[in-house]
Structure formats: C-alpha cells, structure tokens
Amino acid sequence: MARTTKSGVIHLDTHIVCWLYEGRTELLTAAALRAIEDGLLQVSPMVQLELTYLHEIGRINRGGHAVLEALAKDIGLSVADVSFAQVMKIAEGLTWTRDPFDRMIVAHCTVANAMLVSKDQLIQKHFAKVIW
User: Fold this and answer.
1) Are 64 and 9 in contact (CB under 8 A)?
2) Could you report the per-residue pLDDT of 84-103, keeping only the tens digit for each?
3) Which residues, 6+ apart, have CB-to-CB distance to 71 below 8 Å?
4) What is the pTM of this model?
5) Domain that holds residue 62
6) Where residue 104 sits, what CATH number does that domain have?
7) Pure H helices in 23-118
8) Any idea what the Cα angle at residue 14 is, between residues 11 and 18, rounded to 5°?
C-alpha cells in the first residue's frame, strides 16, 4: 500500500494491525483503506501489548514487537508516544467497556486527537472518531 499524502494521524485498532500484517486487506472497508493509505499511521502501545497476549494464547503466530516492526518497515506504522497519565485519566471515564485494551486504545486516540480505524461496533457506538 503506497501512500502519496499524509492527511492526519490515524490510529489502528489491534484487529486492523493483525489484518494488515497478514495481508488481509480485503477485510477492510473502502473508507478504512483510504485512511490507511493517506494517514500518518500509529498505534497505541496497548496494541503491542494486546498483540503479545494474542501470541501468548496462540491466536497469532508472532509477538507484538515483531508484528509492529514488520509493519513499520512495510507501511511506516509507528507507536504513538503521549503521556501515560493523560491516557489513564481519559480511560477511567470510558465506562462503556470492561475491555482494558479498548479503553486504553480509545483514550490514547482521544489524547492524540487521532482518528481510529476499527471494525469494533461497541467502539463505533461510543467513540465518534472511528473510521470504518
């Protein structure tokens, strides 16, 4: 996926990272693909941790660091760096989910003022800055 412009910061949810790593772009909507192709791509550090958990339980074949390193080379994906204290402050208020990964990923997007590419319907229902 060659990107010709960078239209803003775009964060990717964990399942999107998995699909991109596996080359399964057919699972993405046209809007999601456009955002990925045009945006400055980042993930919350929580995505790396969630990928590591998925690897530990056998759901994916490589750990978070390896997946993100490969995507950094392939599509320029980077790990966003914002204040953990600020992210935690926002995450505490996201009572619509019990999933700590979703809370932190959405809170990170909020602090970074970024859009989030996600298919997750609960996130879509409660977070206005989702692209799907």
Assistant:
1) no
2) 999 999 999 999 999 999 99
3) 17, 20, 21, 77
4) 0.92
5) 9-131
6) 3.40.50.1010
7) 30-38, 45-56, 64-75, 84-92, 100-112
8) 115
